[in-house]
C-alpha cells in the first residue's frame, strides 16, 4: 500500500514556509503596470496597487495567517528580487517557462488567459489574423514569453522589446510597431479603455503549463510552494478568479472616469519629491566623495593614487543602471537595503567619480605660481590646497559642476527600475492607469525642464558672483 505524504512531511523539507510565518509577512514583488493583473488606482486621493494578482495573493496570505506586503519594481527585476531574497514571491502575470524554472520555483498555474495582439484600430482591416503579421514589426516586453513567441513563431517578423507595456502601447499608437504581443486579459483591458486600439487572438500552438500565469519563489522553497498551491487549488475550485477579474474591471473604470493630468497631480508631486531627495543627497555625497578622490589622485602614495584611479575608471566605465541593480540586488544579498537608500547610494557613488575628474581638472588649471607663492608665505601643503588652490579651482570648474548637478537630476530617473517612486516611476504608473501614452510624458518633460531651469538660474547667479568677487 502506498502511503501518501502528509503536509507535515512536505513542510519538513525546508524552512521557507516557517520563515514566512515567523516574520508574519509575505513580500510580493510585482510590476503594477499590467492591468488587469496588477495596476495602481487613485481612490479617495490615495494610491493602491490592485488587480487579480493582488487579490489572489491576499487570499494566499490570509490562508498562511500572515500580512501581505507589496514591493513594486520593473518587470525585469521581479524574479531577481525573489532570487536575492528581496521578496518572498514574484507575481506579475509571469509565465513559468523552462528557462525561468532553472532560476526559480513556480507554483501551479493559477490562470490561463491566452495570448493576443493589440493593433491600431485603423489597421483592423489589414491585420485580421496572426498570419497577417508575417514580416511585420512586433512589439513585446523584453524577457517575456510574448517576445520569444513572436521571434520563433511569426515568419520574418522584426521583434522590438521594451521594458514597459505602456511604452509599447505608445509605440503602437505612434506606428513604431505594427502589433503588440500581450496576454489576452491585458489586451481586453486596453481595448475596453482605449477606443484607438483593437485586438486579434494569437494562433500560437501553446503549452498551457508554460503559458499560464504562476507565482515564482526562490529555489528550494518546497514547503512554501506546497502551501501556496493548496490556496490556488481552492481558488480554482471555487471559481474565485472570475470574481477577482470582475473586481479589477471595476477598479479600471475608477481610473478612467477622470484621466486628466490634474487628477493625478499627487502622483507627479510624489515623483518630484523623491527625485529631489535623491538628487539633493547625491549631490552632497558626490561632491564630498569626488573631492576626496581628486585629492587621492594627487597623493604621492602609489597605493592611494591607484585606488582612486581604479575606482574612477571602473565607475565611469559601467552603466549607472547596472550600478543601481548591483547595489540593490548584489549588496542586498549581504545587507537588505531599502530601494530608496540603494538608489541614493548608487547615484552618489556614480556622481563622485565624475565630480572627481572635474575637481582634478580644476586643480590642474590653477597656475603653479600660486602654489609657489603660498610656499614663500610659509603656508603648508594642506593650507595651500584649502585656502589658495581649491577656491580658485572652484571658480574655474563651477560651470562643469553645474552641468553635473543638472545631469544628476535627470540621470536619477534610473532608480525607477528598482521601484523607487521617482518622477519616471510615477509617469509610467499614470500612463498605465489612464491609458494615455503621450500626455503623462509631456507633463513629466515639463516638470523636469522647470526643475533644471530653476537650478540653472541659481547656478548662473552664483557663477556671476564668483566672477565679480575679488
Structure description:
- This protein has 470 residues and is an alpha/beta fold.
- It has three domains: 7-107 and 213-257, D-Maltodextrin-Binding Protein, domain 2 (3-Layer(aba) Sandwich); 115-205, Periplasmic binding protein-like II (D-Maltodextrin-Binding Protein, domain 2, 3-Layer(aba) Sandwich), CATH 3.40.190.10; 262-468, MetI-like fold (Orthogonal Bundle).
- 58% of the residues lie in helices and 13% in strands.
- The protein is built from 19 helices and 13 strands.
- It has helices at residues 7-11, 16-23, 52-64, 75-83, 98-101, 145-153, 165-173, 184-193, 208-211, 222-237, 240-257, 265-297, 302-316, 320-330, 339-365, 368-376, 381-411, 423-434, 439-468; strands at residues 25-30, 33-34, 38-43, 46-50, 67-72, 89-90, 104-106, 115-120, 137-141, 158-162, 179-183, 197-201, 216-218.
- The strands form four sheets. It has a five-stranded mixed beta sheet with strand order 10-9-11-8-12, sandwiched between helices. Strands 5-1-6 form a three-stranded parallel beta sheet, sandwiched between helices. A three-stranded antiparallel beta sheet has the order 2-3-4.
- β2 and β3 (38-43) form a beta hairpin.
- α15 (339-365) crosses α17 (381-411) and α16 runs antiparallel to α17.
- The longest helix has 33 residues, at 265-297.
- The chain is elongated and about 90 Å long.
- The protein starts with 6 loop residues before the first helix and ends with a helix.
- The relative contact order is 0.12.
- One of its GO terms (cellular component) is ATP-binding cassette (ABC) transporter complex.
- Belongs to the binding-protein-dependent transport system permease family. HisMQ subfamily.
- GO terms for molecular function: transmembrane transporter activity.
- It comes from Secundilactobacillus odoratitofui DSM 19909 = JCM 15043.
- This is Polar amino acid ABC transporter inner membrane subunit.
Amino acid at each position: 500500500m502506498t502511503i501518501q505524504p502528509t503536509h507535515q512531511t512536505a513542510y519538513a523539507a525546508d524552512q521557507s514556509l516557517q520563515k514566512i510565518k515567523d516574520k508574519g509577512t509575505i513580500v510580493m514583488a510585482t510590476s503594477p503596470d499590467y492591468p488587469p493583473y496588477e495596476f495602481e488606482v487613485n481612490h479617495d486621493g490615495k494610491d493602491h496597487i490592485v488587480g487579480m494578482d493582488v487579490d489572489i495573493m491576499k487570499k494566499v496570505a490570509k490562508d498562511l495567517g500572515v500580512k501581505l506586503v507589496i514591493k513594486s519594481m520593473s518587470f525585469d527585476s521581479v524574479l531577481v528580487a525573489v532570487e536575492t531574497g528581496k521578496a518572498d514571491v514574484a507575481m506579475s502575470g509571469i509565465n513559468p517557462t523552462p528557462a525561468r524554472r532553472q532560476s526559480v520555483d513556480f507554483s501551479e498555474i493559477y490562470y490561463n488567459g491566452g495570448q493576443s495582439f493589440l493593433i491600431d484600430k485603423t489597421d483592423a482591416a489589414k491585420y485580421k489574423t496572426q498570419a497577417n503579421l508575417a514580416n511585420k514589426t512586433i512589439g513585446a516586453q523584453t524577457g517575456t514569453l510574448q517576445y520569444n513567441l513572436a521571434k520563433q513563431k511569426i515568419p520574418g517578423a522584426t521583434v522590438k522589446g521594451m521594458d514597459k507595456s505602456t511604452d509599447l502601447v505608445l509605440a503602437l499608437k505612434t506606428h513604431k510597431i505594427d502589433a503588440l504581443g500581450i496576454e489576452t486579459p491585458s489586451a481586453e483591458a486596453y481595448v475596453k479603455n482605449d477606443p484607438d486600439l483593437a485586438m486579434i487572438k494569437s494562433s500560437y500552438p501553446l503549452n498551457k503549463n508554460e503559458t499560464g500565469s504562476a507565482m515564482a519563489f526562490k529555489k528550494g522553497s518546497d514547503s512554501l510552494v506546497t502551501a501556496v498551491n493548496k490556496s490556488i487549488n481552492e481558488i480554482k475550485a471555487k471559481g474565485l478568479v472570475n470574481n477577482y477579474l470582475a473586481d479589477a474591471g471595476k477598479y479600471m473604470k475608477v481610473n478612467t472616469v477622470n484621466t486628466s493630468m490634474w487628477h493625478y497631480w499627487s502622483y507627479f508631486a510624489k515623483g518630484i519629491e523623491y527625485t529631489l531627495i535623491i538628487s539633493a543627497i547625491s549631490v552632497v555625497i558626490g561632491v564630498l566623495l569626488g573631492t576626496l578622490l581628486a585629492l587621492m589622485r594627487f597623493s604621492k602614495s602609489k597605493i592611494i593614487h591607484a585606488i582612486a584611479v581604479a575606482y574612477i575608471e571602473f565607475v565611469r566605465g559601467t552603466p549607472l543602471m547596472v550600478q543601481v541593480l548591483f547595489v540593490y540586488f548584489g549588496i542586498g544579498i549581504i545587507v537588505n537595503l531599502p530601494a530608496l537608500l540603494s538608489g541614493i547610494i548608487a547615484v552618489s557613488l556614480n556622481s563622485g567619480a565624475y565630480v572627481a575628474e572635474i575637481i582634478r581638472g580644476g586643480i590642474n588649471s590653477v597656475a603653479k605660481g600660486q602654489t609657489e607663492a603660498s610656499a614663500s608665505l610659509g603656508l603648508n601643503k594642506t593650507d595651500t590646497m584649502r585656502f589658495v588652490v581649491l577656491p580658485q579651482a572652484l571658480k574655474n570648474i563651477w560651470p562643469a559642476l553645474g552641468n553635473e548637478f543638472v545631469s544628476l537630476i535627470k540621470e536619477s530617473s534610473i532608480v525607477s527600475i528598482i521601484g523607487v517612486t521617482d518622477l519616471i516611476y510615477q509617469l509610467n504608473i499614470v500612463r498605465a492607469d489612464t491609458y494615455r501614452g503621450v500626455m503623462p510624458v509631456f507633463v513629466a518633460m515639463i516638470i523636469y525642464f522647470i526643475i533644471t531651469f530653476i537650478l540653472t538660474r541659481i547656478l548662473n547667479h552664483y557663477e556671476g558672483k564668483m566672477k565679480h568677487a575679488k
